[in-house]
Amino acid sequence: MSERASSKQSLLVDKERCALLVIDVQNCFVPGGTLAVADGDAVVPLINQLGKVFSNVVLTQDWHPADHISFATQHQGKQPFETVELPYGTQVLWPAHGVQGTDDAALHPGLALPHAQLIIRKGYHRTIDSYSAFYEADQKTDTGLAGYLQARGIDTVFLVGLATDFCVAWSAEDARKVGLTTYVIEDACRGIDLNGSLGVAWERMSAAGVKRIQSTDLL
Ligand code: VGL
Ligand code: ZN
Fold it and tell me: N or C: which end of the chain has fewer CB within 10 A?
């Protein structure tokens, strides 16, 4: 048996054209944080390993003002996880999280990605949420990430992080919209799964042409 055939690894990363997008691995989204995703911290060691496969690493950081419109506290009589209608569509209301400059909003201290080249902050406009790393929730306001990747000749992205069914899924769908070949590494993500949102997110990603893979496909 050849080396290659005995290896579990089935995908090769072109270091120039590929980037690892590490979505919202922040204190707020792991146990102990303000919007903890179950088992969210379990992805950190795996993401550190995956980071070694890539030359291009981009991180995102959910970065809200204290009075952000996605916070239930801003809507009288509303509780976290209820929804409201906003000019751009239905908005899930969240506990206050990821407030700019707080320790809760900081990147997880266990991340070891010293070669990461860019941190995209998002969700900083008070009246628009931004799950996606590419476009805010109005589907129009551009974060600049697509232009950055294009300018650097990157045409393929691999997504990991939190949460699978919100910021990872919306980022992956938008990555397809801007023409990127898009992979989500499932076991390097964790979901919130609010009223079945995790299954719906995978269906939407699949319909958009997002490829669902496991870390063993790369490691
Ligand atoms: C996220 C809800 C609110 C995420 C961010 O990172 O998936 N989810 N803000
Ligand atoms: Zn948020």
Answer: N
What CATH number has the domain spanning 8-66+95-217? 3.40.50.850
Q: DSSP class of residue 108?
A: P
Tens-digit pLDDT profile for residues 161-213: 999 999 999 999 999 999 999 999 999 999 999 999 999 999 999 999 999 99
Residue 122 is among the residues annotated as catalytic for this protein = yes
Q: How far apart are CA 214 and CA 122, in angstroms?
A: 27
Q: Is residue 123 left, alpha or beta, with left meaning phi > 0 and alpha meaning psi from -120 to 50?
A: left
Catalytic residue among 18, 28, 167, 189: 167
Domain segments of the chain as ranges:
8-66+95-217
- Is 78 annotated as catalytic? no
Measuring CA to CA, which residue among 92, 122, 123 is closest to residue 201?
Answer: 92
Phi and psi of 11, rounded to 5°? -125, 135
Q: Is 15 helix (H, G, I), strand (E, B) or coil?
A: coil
Dump pLDDT digits (tens) for 93-116.
Answer: 999 999 999 999 999 999 999 999
Distance between CA atoms of residues 171 and 182, nearest Å? 10
Helix, strand, coil tally for the chain in percent (to 5): 25, 25, 50
DSSP string, 17-80: TEEEEEE--BGGGSTTSTTPPTTGGGHHHHHHHHHTT-S-EEEEEE-B-TT-TTBGGGSTT--T
